[in-house]
Amino acid sequence: MKTGADINLFIVSKTENNKIMKRTGSFLLICFIGLQTIFAQGFFGKVSGHLWEGTGELLGSEATFHMEWKQILDGKFYQLSFQNQRKDSKEFIFKAMSVYKKNDDNMVSGTWFDSRGFSFPLKGEVSYDKLIIFWGSPELEEGKTIYTIKNDSAISVEDFILKDGELIKFGNAEYAPND
Q: How far is 118 from 96, CA to CA, in rounded Å?
């Protein structure tokens, strides 16, 4: 038979367990949110503030690439300035600029503007060492770009265009900082 002391001990234990569970849940939530922030800041923090020079292939030809990432508007957005030039087309330099906003989760949104006069939406996801962006609109063109940080000192970029429902690679480059 349980005594009053046993019942009081059970009630205190149950109350203490609830407090511990609430503290543990709060701690895990803070850790999860913190990791998401670290992942996003990790990628953008590593690429921002550097001029990146790259070489690779674009539309089947050797090409040179330049990109610069920076924080803008009090760190609320990230801007990418970009250009490429195919070695077999010395007279044409493709230029673009995009603005990205990292949302509270690991999702990213933004807008792309380029020297062809195109602008279109950007949507994607960021992790500690990778940014995956789906770009375009059905009216213009659609595709995907994958930015991957390698060894904290290089960036690999792969570009795909959507053609007949399939993503086809049209460009890739390896970048190193040049600043």
A: 9
List the beta bridge partners of residue 52: 67, 177
> Are the CB atoms for 173 and 61 separated by under 8 Å?
no
- Among 164, 119, 159, residue whose Cα is nearest residue 137: 119
Residue 2 DSSP code:
-
Tell me the pTM: 0.75
- How large is the average pLDDT for residues 87-97? 85
Number of H helices, E strands in the chain: 1, 10
- Give the span between the Cα atoms of 58 and 66, in whole angstroms: 13
Q: Contact, 158 vs 169, CB < 8 A? A: yes
For domain 45-177, give the CATH number: 2.40.128.20
Q: Which of 136, 84, 141, 149 is nearest to 110 (CA)?
A: 136
- Could you say which DSSP state residue 76 is in? T
Query: What digits encode the pLDDT tens for the residues 14-52?
Result: 566 565 555 544 444 444 444 444 444 578 888 888 899
Phi, psi torsion values for 4, nearest 5 degrees: -60, -35
Taking CA atoms, 82 is separated from 62, 64, 66, 143, 172, in Å, by 17, 11, 6, 17, 14
Q: In sequence order, which residues have a C-beta less than 8 Å from that of residue 21 and are 6 or more positions away? A: none
